[in-house]
Design brief:
Strand content: 25-35%
CATH architecture of the largest domain: Alpha-Beta Complex
Strand order of the largest sheet: 5-8-9-10-11-12
Structural class: alpha+beta
Number of strands: 14
Number of helices: 5
Order of helices and strands: EEHEEHEEEEEHEEEEEHH
CATH superfamily of the largest domain: tt1808, chain A
CATH topology of the largest domain: tt1808, chain A
CATH class of the largest domain: Alpha Beta
Number of domains: 2
Amino acid sequence: MRTSGQAEWLDSTHGGFALVAHIHTLFDTPAVARMSAEDYIASPQSEQKSDLIEGIFVMASPASIEHEDLTLFIGAILRLFVTQRQLSVVLGSNAAYRLNDENVYLPDVSFLSSQRRHLAGEVYVYGAPDLAVEIISPSSRQYDTVEKLVNDERYGVQEYWLVDPIAREVTLYGNVHGQLVAIPAQEGVLRSHLLTDFWLRTEWIFPPAGAARPSELAIARELGLIEGLRD
């Protein structure tokens, strides 16, 4: 992401002098510096991977190979599960969710339930996803762990998966009484509280050194989604 977590806002309206306000999170962004969701969508730059976070246009940096590999891997398993159970739709990293007039997020992977699919418009979904997956990159760490986590909780995301390739960790946050609370893995297994019977082993996401990740077909068989097919 090209916007710094400690952003600087320059105001040249005070007698010609530039005032610099250090913003430790984007929640501190002054109202005059905020962009609306409509202006964000109208901007030609929004055609590239980006987010509108607290009224600030945050452009994504090019993704690493590992980032894209994890995105496609988790998206494929989740899509197989949701499709087999006829639960609605799993979307990729270009699906936009308009949380409010100052926050439009494009999670790396998301699930939108049948009950909320009517919220999908031509440009973006008018509301939060039921489930969002974010793959942390060095430049997105603060946004994924602070602003997006807080606002996803505020606007009703039921489950938030935070995948950290640097720490090689996955944190699953479940919505408990309106708050996204970290739900620890049990014996190396992450179990969704939103999608009954959906689970992943952490070693599938981050295999031990020297080990290969199982194929999507092998995992689908273990989840009971398909039978009889070979890799």
